[in-house]
Structure formats: structure tokens, C-alpha cells
What does this fold into?
Amino acid sequence: GESVGLHLPTLSVQEGDNSIINCAYSNSASDYFIWYKQESGKGPQFIIDIRSNMDKRQGQRVTVLLNKTVKHLSLQIAATQPGDSAVYFCAEGDTGTASKLTFGTGTRLQVTL
Amino acid sequence: GAVVSQHPSWVICKSGTSVKIECRSLDFQATTMFWYRQFPKQSLMLMATSNEGSKATYEQGVEKDKFLINHASLTLSTLTVTSAHPEDSSFYICSAGGGQRSIFGPGTRLTVT
It folds into this structure.
């Protein structure tokens, strides 16, 4: 089902530290997961994705971990920078080209100097 | 890379009037586009799936007669909010493609006075 949050949880991290943002997804049949970054007044920006046949995937400064047993997804950002401040959403779906995505609640990341 | 544009980026309209929002895929064709709505501090909620040349598929609870979707070409989908009311004020975001090919637009801020 859809996940709606009335108040975005906030994660405050000091510049240079690592950030870990968590997400619980709802559909055990989902086989594709994406992390998006959304800055104020803008559309979601793709960060990294992972398929259900993997449990870890690394990108530049970011790592996504998938635990299908407990339907949990996490995004790790190394050496967090002020430009990383934004709202982060996980989304689930399948790899089909016409597949709709279901978004998680979202987490606001605040990077302090 | 593939880009999706939206027009207008923001619009203010009076209660009772209708407003049309355009979603265009630039340099690529999209048989499927999606329309999302996002209220402040909340997640993206899927409203409908727009299919080129056929009727849109609406999510449960979304009034199809109020939110008219037309996908007349492979690069353009439009969302018309009819008889808009203040509660329709929101951030409307489209995406072209689906699943791992989802490309999001920058969003349209609608304010109904």
C-alpha cells in the first residue's frame, strides 16, 4: 500500500560524517528499489537503485543495502557534505518499463557545519 | 541524458477554474507517464498512470472526472485540474517511463485561491 507521512523524520549529521537513512518498504513482491533525493521545490533526483537479487550496491559516496527478510532498505552516504541536505525517499516497484513506483515516507537530512 | 519538463513550473488560479499542466519527455518517447501529487512535508502519492493512446488508470480515491489526463502523443501528457479548490493546492510531479526507467519532471506548484 501507499505510505504517507504527516511529518518528515529528520536526520541531523555533521559535515564529514557518514549518514544512514532507513526505509521500510511494504510490498514483498517488489523487485526493484530506488533512492531519490529531493531538494525544496524540485522533482526527485535519482541517486542509486538495487534489484531484489542483490543485497548491496555501491555508487560514488553512496551505498544501498537491501534486507528482503525484514523488508528494509538503507542508504549510506559517506563523508556527508552540505550539498547533501535534502529530503530522501526510497521507492519500490518492479523493473518493468511501465511499472509504477510507490514512495516511502521520506527523511530530511540536515548537514551541520 | 533523458529529461522530462513540466509547464508551468508554478501557477496560481482562482477557486472554480481549471488549470492544465503539461509533462513532456525531451529527446525520448514515453508510452507511459505517471502523475504524482505531493503535499507539504509529505511523500509523493501516485495519482494516475497515463498511457499513450488510451485512457489513464487512476489510483483508488483519485477522482478521474476532476483530474483529467490526456496522453495524446509519445512525448506529451497533460493533467487538467477541473473546478479547482484550495485543497487541490499541491506540488504535481510527472514521470516518464516506469520502473528503472523512471525520469521525473521538476514539478508544478499549484496554488488555488
The CA atoms of residues 36 and 47 of chain B lie 5 Å apart. The interface with chain A takes residues 4, 6, 31-32, 34, 36, 41-46, 49, 51, 91, 93, 95, 97-102, 104-107, 109 of chain B (CB under 8 Å). The two ends of chain B are 37 Å apart (CA to CA). Chain B has a mean pLDDT of 94.
